[in-house]
Amino acid sequence: MTISIGEKLPQATFREKTADGPAEVTTEDLFAGKRVVLFAVPGAFTPTCTLNHLPGYLENREALIAKGVDEIAVVSVNDWHVMGAWAQQSGGLGKIHFLADFDAAFTRAIGLDADLSAGGLGVRSRRYAMLVEDGVVKSLDIEDSPGQATVSGAQAMLDRL
Questions:
Q1: Cα(80)–Cα(78) distance, rounded to whole angstroms?
Q2: With contact defined as beta carbons under 8 Å apart, do 97 and 59 qualify?
């Protein structure tokens, strides 16, 4: 069952690359008392994710913060090494959180997992964006196709805010 607007995010632990190695980041750490934009991608370094989805959030980071967003995070079913490399390569390190949902536990818990085995990716996340306030989903926009980043893109989020 897919999480709905008005529901609290389930407890989960992600891994994020830091200068000291992997750090555990819980949903409580990231969302408690904050207004956070969380967007998900099917895979780091994949074409739509790297060329469209992520750059939009990096380019619009300051505009989102100006509209009252405290944090921006991207989550993907990848390991923390891959997410750390993507953060570094994209110029996003230190600007947004690159969260590794390495075993898809969070993605499955919110009902947004997708079997992309036909494309050689295995179980991944659907592409979406949500606004979360103090751990509660305030908006959720899910793409119909993993190759699209329109309703979940940064401009769509800015328009909602």
A1: 7
A2: no
